[in-house]
Amino acid sequence: MRLSVIGCGYVGLVTGACLAEAGHNVVCTDIDADRIAKLNAGVVPIYEEHLGRILDSAHKAGRISYTANAGEAIRAGEAIFICVGTPPKESGEADLSAIDHVARQIATEARTPKLVIEKSTVPARTGLELSRALSAYSKNSDVKFRVASNPEFLREGTAVADFFHPDRIVVGVEDPSSAAELREIYRPILEKNFHCPVHEGTCPPGPKAEFLVTTINSAELIKHASNSFLALKISYANVIADLCEKIGANVEEVTHAMGLDPRIGGQFLKAGLGYGGFCFPKDVQAFIHLAAKVGVDFDILKAAERVNKQRIDRFFEKIHQALWVVKGKRVAVLGLAFKANTDDIRFAPALEVVKRLIEEGALIHATDPEAMPRTKALFPHLHYHEDLYEALRDADAALICTEWQSFRRIDWERAGSLMARKLVLDGRNLYTAQRMREMGFEYYSFGRE
Ligand code: UGA
Question: What is the pLDDT of residues 88-114, one digit of tens each?
């Protein structure tokens, strides 16, 4: 099919690339002409595993193109995926101005009927407003619009794999023809009939994705409800970690056993510095806001948010306990990205740690496999090191802030010989206290003795 993708951020680029890889013809557009120029020159503006390779092969095969001319992109597709940002306003409410702008553009630029699909995470009832805007701004009554919601459940860092191997594809529609069209778009993935770029065509056998057809309101709610529940799970595990510290238990033993119960499930129960990124913090806030707007009490989610914010305080209690005075101490910050396998630093707990360290007068030597360029733009005065061991040289403490695989394999003998003091504060529970103490380190983590 001919598809348009509006917005070339994480969601838009991954969606466009993967749909092209699945055999569709995709035209992508973005308001940022510079980003389009880069994409046309073969430069992928974000780090996401497999993405560069897929975009390159789709571009060479002529299945994906980029234009800064939104009208051109809108006219090219039978179906249009809206993948623009919905950032939080000061109040926590989702800012839908980009969606509104795109709706008006589609209404005025389209010359043929379109299926307009919300992919961005939006509060429930946005589809109704989108529908209203499309008809209000359309000048041609022959051009009919149908609206659908197709929330994305991709995780940064594994977005391509998630796209090709989803648990479920949710489509919220107004009529059966939209559901049929969306089923056709996802047919290669539903039938597992594509050359998987992640496993080089040899995907491990697994269950096929569920294709769920719902109302638009339900689809929108499914996305917010899912993300918020995962955030809730993380905060729950973090409170259990605090409790473990107080009563002398081990959070990993507790959450592992909990997770073996299929009603609970073992994922998203890792305690540490808490959740970050551009999805959970903003989606939780937007969901709280939406609930308040319609008079529903969502205190349970407010508590999850509060617990998450307190993770940084908890980390600093440990830092103060270990280091005593922070001012003038040389601190190695290992990890800046909000999680591993991404260069994304938006709402990264690591950056909250950095900000607090700056306030307290620490000398910060930071390292991250992917996120240093973005962090440098925000904090130009930190010392950055490509080499982890250079970051650790002469450090009074090492702070592990992101769960990068490479941080799980640190040669602590070598690190210890370089550091001024053998002190590790592990914000992601990557090591065990026993192992670190055997190597002569003072070691602090979350929810363990
Ligand atoms: C999240 C969801 O997992 C996706 O399903 C969803 O599509 C996406 O948001 C979105 O709305 O676009 P993402 O933000 O990429 O994906 O990252 P996650 O892997 O979910 O991690 C979120 C945060 O939680 C990270 O900071 C991570 O370190 C933290 N986390 C995760 C924990 O602290 N503990 C855990 O057990 C798991």
Answer: 899 888 899 999 999 999 999 999 999
CATH number, domain at 316?
3.40.50.720
Q: Is 333 helix (H, G, I), strand (E, B) or coil?
A: strand
DSSP E strand stretches across 119-258: 145-149, 168-172, 210-214
307 lines ligand 1 (CB under 6 A): no
Identify whether 449 is part of a domain: no
User: Is residue 196 flagged as an active site residue?
Assistant: no
Range(s) of the domain holding residue 242: 223-309
Q: Is the pTM of this model over 0.85?
A: yes
Mutate to test the pocket of ligand 1, among 156, 280, 310, 445 (most ligand atoms within 8 A of CB): 280
Ligand 1: which atom is nearest the Cα of residue 11? 12
Find all residues with CB under 8 Å of 46, minimum gap 6, and list them: 9, 10, 13, 343, 344
Query: In the listed set 286, 309, 332, which residue is the last one of a domain according to the structure?
Result: 309
CB of 146 closer than 8 Å to CB of 115: yes
Kindly indicate the confidence band of residue 13, based on its pLDDT and cuts at 50, 70 and 90. Answer: very high
